Structures are given as structure tokens and as C-alpha cells.
Amino acid sequence: MSMDFTTSNPWAPSTSSNSVVATMLSIPGITLPIDNVRQHIILADNGVQIGNIDTPWSAANVKGGTLTTAFTTSTLNVFSASHAAFSGFISSLSTKASHPVTLQGAVDVKLNLGIFGHLTIPGIGFKATTPFTGLNNLDLKYVLLIDLNMDTADRIIMATIINVKNPSKLTLKLGDVSFSTASAGEYIGVSTIKNLNLQPGDNYVLSSTALDTTKDATNAFVNSLYTADGSLVLTGFSGTSTNTALNAGLAAVRSNLVVPMNFIGSSMSQPPYKNWALKILPTTGADGLVDVTATFQSPYYGYPVKMLQDEAPGEDNYAFINSVSNDLDTLHLFEFRNTLTYSVSGTGATTVTFKANIVKFVAADKARIQALVAYAQKNKSIPVQFWFMARIEVGTDGISRTVDFGNSGTGLGDLSVAVGPDFANIVNFVPSA
Hints:
single chain, mainly beta, 15-stranded mixed beta sheet, 7-stranded mixed beta sheet, 6 helices, about 10% helix, elongated
């Protein structure tokens, strides 16, 4: 079942379900020819009728005594006298492992009588109490640091990917939610997840935590991460959601989040790039520019990425040779020059060719450049590592973030840059003695 709390009326969330299974009273050997149903459901919690759902006619089938159907988007109309009860219902689903819910009302059915057409039987009553698996206070796990923004004097903005486990079978569209964040019992800031849409199972989401550095507890927490993991407690508060009904229900949520030492989490969902290649151009000797081609993808668990600057302000980014020889290792193969831009969806990939600089050689470099060409001709590629501090956007919030796409930030080992016969021309750019 799905519930959408981003509707304009907080007391009228939309619902849908792709699988409704009901057990019917049956006569052995006889299967009723039901092929369509329409449901009139009243939701009750703790003996209080909360609201009603009227579904459209939906296809159905019966096998033995089991009826299976579904229903498309239908509004849960919360009764005006039951607002407090509905918020209590949301609170129970948010904080408990399981919560019993009563569904009652009537079902209209259509019997397929073949050549005689359909017979509609209205108002077949039902009432059942069923346990709903709840969120159990949100099971949070720190996954990956994206960036720490310290540009503002009184706060640090910690952008992370966290995993919110949804043990229930409910899909919940909650919109923007925020939680008061504490360390060692002291308030240190607010954590916000925008457009939170919880599917059953693992949900990798972008969390932004504004840490208030005017608080002693904040500075103690940040300093402690240099030597040990830190623990945060996230709780609902009066500003958790702009949805009045949802806000009251989430107020009781209390979740723990362990931030690992030095903010170091697990790995990216995939490397941010692959399939590098370098081409020496006929004009390289004159302007020092080469073509670099690579395929870029999102390393942030399904969030789209937009490359704003391949060199963050104050950075000089480059690819340097590694694992070839003592004489060649650390030599810059090419240097970024802020010509790389791209946008990629959370699941897609894009191949981009951009201009980069080659190093200006001196006469003393000739022998090792010849050795590099010989290595490239033999292996068709050159192993490199990157120093790559970039400015990107993650998701759709429009916030520019400085990220480490180099080997230290990605955890990648050597990467191969493919080269062709044109690479031999690099020798011509070494000046004579």
C-alpha cells in the first residue's frame, strides 16, 4: 500500500495498492465469477473511526476462497473529529514495529455471467483487524560523506548519504522532513531530508545536517570524530514537517545515527567515472591542449549529478602517472582546466570529451618521455591516479558542493588512460637541449 502525504490537504492523503488479498467465505468446489470490485473502506484505530477510502472499480479475480485485486490512487478522507486519532495512528506506524489496524466497510462486486452479462452485487460487508508493520522509529545507517561546508561562521553543513530502512510493506511519500539532532543529550543542530519517499527495504537518501558551531556540544562532537565514532540522536519536533497531520504523528520519532570516525563511511555506489582516454591533437604542440574522453556516472546511490567546475576554487587538479617506474611515477599526464561539464541521472551515464593541458617539458625530460612513449606503445594505456577536487550539484537542491573525486576520495586504485599511436607525438614537445 502507498500513502502520499504531499497532497495540498494534509487531512486527505492519497492512497493506492497494487495488491489487496481477501479471504472469502466459500462453498467447496465453487468459485464465484467475480471480475471487478469497488471498495468502501473505513479505517479505524484504537476503536476510533479515522477516515474513509472509496476506491474506483478495479479488476479482480477469485481462486478458491481468495479474492485478489488492487486499486489506483484514492483519497483517504480523515474525519474532522478524528484529526488527533489520525496523528496518533501515524505516530504508531512511525515508532512501533507492528500496529493493529481495523478495516471495515463494504465491497461492491461484479459477477461475470458470460452471455448473460454482469450482475452487480452492492454492499457486501466486511470487518477485519490486521497488523501493519511499522517503521520502528526509522532505522538509520550512515553510508557516505559527500561534503562538509564550513563557509558559514556559525555552522557546518554535513551532507551525507544515509540508508533509511523501511521494514514495512508501506510506500510512504513524506515530502521534506527535519529532525532535531543531539549529541550526548545536547542539541547541536537540525537534520533535513528533502522529498523523502520511503519504499519497502533500503532507501538511500541525501541528508543535510546543519551543525550549530556556537554550541559547545557541537564542537565536542566534531572533535571527537578525529579519534572515535560519534552518535547522534534524531527526534521529531514542531518543525519536522509542514504537513500538519504528519508533523503531529512524527513528533514521537526518536532514531540513532552513528557517524564513523573522520566521517569515513562505506564506499560509493559506483565509481564516478570510467573508460578514460587521451588523444594528442595536431594543434597540441602550439596550444598545449589535448582531448580527454571519459564516461561519467553518479556515485551517490541514484541521485543525479551535475559537474559545475572540474577544479574547485583554489585547486589545481591533474592526473599523474603511477605504477610505471620510479622515474615516471608522479609525472603529470594531463591537467584539468575547468572545461569539463556534464549532467547525469542517478542511473545513467554520459561520455564526454573535454580539453586538458599537458605539462610543459624541459630538455632534461626527453629520456623519460621516450620511456613513457615506449610503455604506452606496448601497453596501449597508462596507469594514473587523480588529484580531483570538483564542484558539483547532487540531487535537485541546487547547492554547489566541493567533493573529492580523486583517488583518496573515491577509494579507487590505479585507473587506465587509453592512448593510441598519436601519443608518440608527445616526444616532439620536449625542447632540445
